[in-house]
């Protein structure tokens, strides 16, 4: 075992010892596996551990597969990227203005159907029912003008693959993506199907780890309904750039930056995010009830990092940041778990209570003061039934007051040196640092 492998092992052991990660990690350089190991429990009720071969729902990493399916049809001259979507999937009122390229690059302006008031994760949905919802909604911008992540794009793209190929999307994936690469543990996640060696999905509640709420996987059609393993995703990642799945020219299109998302510090490609031009990094994250994951490819160093977790509050991007630091420098300074004050007078912070919003996405959270303690009602943009997530003091300096969630370590930095004192807070969840504003402040 090399020094790098030892440090990778030690780093991940720190996460497991702190009870801050449950899942599987794979790190590779070229074809050489440096780390492949499971951590925590795939089933808490029976204390069944995660292993290197554990299966997880992969959320938006599905979009890479859907994009590849579309690009295969492009390679076979079954469709053109500048064709309007109505050519293949008619009935959407803006379909004559939106091209396949707009859908792939998230520049269509189509709202995310999961943000609509009528959407429920418990409902069984189809691409046609989602299209009908969206027919009553205006575009969020002129097609081609700006990037905005929207699951609707990939629901429509998956339906287009079905219409053009004459095959159900699952059959298409199996015939043209999974079987040729030997991806035997990758497929469409169905709620009623029992999959041996699949991890149960969990969430963090105000009372600790709980079973994730029900999510009907039909609603994630084409955008987030696949399951996989770390090994299968490693095979997939290598194959994408080899010319065996899509052409080299199509792969270059996939990794072309089409617009910058400042809060991700990355640009959007086809079904993925990229950094650099030409791309030096390609990555895709996934988050769906009970699971969170990331697939990261560092092209210049021929490095691959895959992290799959069966807890949707796991800070996988921050975990990967530490792994990457070890790979490039041999060391890391990532803090796994912030040090919390044993005792503090939270009465002096009760004025932090209020509703805070992130205007670009409409996300919000509420902080409240109760019986001498502070609580927040949600983690990131997900809400749970047990809403009381306790906050504890990390630091109180001349510049800011920093609080952290005791169950997931997300931090809330209230800035003192502002014109509107304490009306703004930086909410740090994983590696995202988002400026929230107090509503009505």
Explain how this protein is built.
It contains nine helices and 23 strands. It is of the alpha+beta class and 441 residues long. Strand 10 (260-261) and strand 11 form a beta hairpin. The termini are far apart. It comes from Paenibacillus borealis. InterPro entries: AmpC-like, Beta-lactam-related, Beta-lactam/transpept-like. Keywords: Membrane. Pfam families: Beta-lactamase.
List the helices and strands and how they pair.
Elements: H1 3-17, E1 23-29, E2 32-39, E3 41-43, E4 48-49, E5 56-57, H2 62-75, H3 100-104, H4 127-134, H5 151-165, H6 169-181, E6 187-188, E7 202-205, E8 208-211, E9 226-228, H7 230-240, H8 248-254, E10 260-261, E11 266-268, E12 273-275, E13 281-288, E14 291-298, E15 303-309, H9 316-329, E16 354-358, E17 363-370, E18 373-376, E19 389-396, E20 400-405, E21 411-415, E22 424-429, E23 432-438
Antiparallel strand pairs: 1-2, 1-15, 3-4, 5-9, 6-9, 7-8, 10-11, 11-12, 12-13, 13-14, 14-15, 16-17, 16-23, 17-18, 18-19, 19-20, 20-21, 21-22, 22-23
Helix pairs in contact: 1-9, 2-5, 2-6
Give a short account of the largest sheet: 8 strands, antiparallel
Mean of pLDDT? 93
CATH homologous superfamily grouping of the largest domain: DD-peptidase/beta-lactamase superfamily
What is the structural class? alpha+beta
Instruction: Identify the CATH architecture of the largest domain.
Output: 3-Layer(aba) Sandwich
Number of domains: 2
Q: Which percent range describes the beta-strand content?
A: 25-35%
Number of strands: 23
Could you list the spans in which at least 5 consecutive residues all have pLDDT below 50?
Answer: none
Helix content: 10-25%
CATH topology of the largest domain: Beta-lactamase
């Amino acid at each position: 075992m090399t020094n790098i492998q030892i440090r990778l092992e030690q780093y991940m052991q720190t996460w497991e010892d702190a009870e801050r990660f449950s899942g599987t990690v794979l790190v590779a350089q070229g074809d050489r596996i440096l780390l492949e190991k499971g951590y925590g429990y795939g089933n808490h009720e029976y204390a069944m551990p995660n292993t290197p071969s554990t299966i997880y729902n992969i959320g938006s990493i599905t979009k890479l597969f859907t994009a590849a399916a579309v690009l295969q049809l492009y390679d076979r001259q079954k469709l053109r990227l500048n064709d309007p979507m109505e050519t293949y999937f008619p009935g959407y009122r803006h379909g004559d203005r939106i091209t396949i390229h707009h859908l792939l690059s998230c520049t269509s302006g189509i709202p995310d159907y999961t943000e609509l008031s009528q959407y429920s994760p418990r409902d069984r949905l189809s691409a046609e029912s989602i299209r009908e919802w969206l027919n009553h909604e205006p575009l969020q911008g002129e097609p081609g003008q700006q990037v905005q992540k929207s699951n609707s794009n990939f629901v429509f793209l998956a339906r287009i693959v079905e219409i053009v190929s004459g095959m159900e999307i699952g059959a298409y994936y199996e015939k043209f993506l999974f079987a040729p690469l030997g991806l035997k543990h990758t497929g469409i996640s169905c709620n009623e199907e029992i999959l041996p060696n699949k991890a149960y999905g969990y969430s963090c509640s105000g009372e600790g780890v709980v079973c994730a709420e029900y999510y009907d996987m039909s609603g994630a059609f084409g955008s987030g309904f696949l399951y996989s393993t770390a090994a299968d995703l490693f095979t997939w990642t290598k194959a994408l750039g080899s010319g065996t799945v899509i052409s080299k020219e199509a792969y270059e299109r996939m990794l072309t930056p089409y617009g910058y998302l400042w809060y991700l510090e990355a640009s959007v490609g086809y079904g993925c995010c990229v950094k650099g031009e030409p791309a030096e990094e390609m990555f895709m994250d996934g988050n769906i009830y009970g699971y969170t994951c990331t697939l990261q490819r560092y092209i210049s160093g021929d490095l691959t990092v895959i992290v799959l977790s069966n807890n949707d509050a796991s800070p996988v991007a921050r975990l990967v940041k530490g792994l990457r630091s070890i790979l490039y420098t041999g060391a890391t300074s990532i803090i796994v778990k912030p040090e919390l004050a044993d005792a503090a007078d939270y009465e002096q912070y009760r004025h932090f209570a209020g509703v805070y919003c992130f205007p670009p996405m409409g996300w919000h959270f509420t902080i409240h003061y109760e019986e001498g303690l502070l609580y927040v009602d949600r983690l990131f943009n997900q809400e749970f039934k047990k809403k009381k997530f306790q906050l504890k003091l990390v630091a109180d300096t001349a510049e800011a007051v920093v609080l952290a969630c005791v169950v997931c370590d997300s931090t809330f930095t209230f800035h003192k040196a502002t014109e509107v004192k304490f009306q703004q807070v930086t909410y740090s969840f994983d590696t995202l640092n988002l400026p929230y504003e107090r509503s009505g402040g």
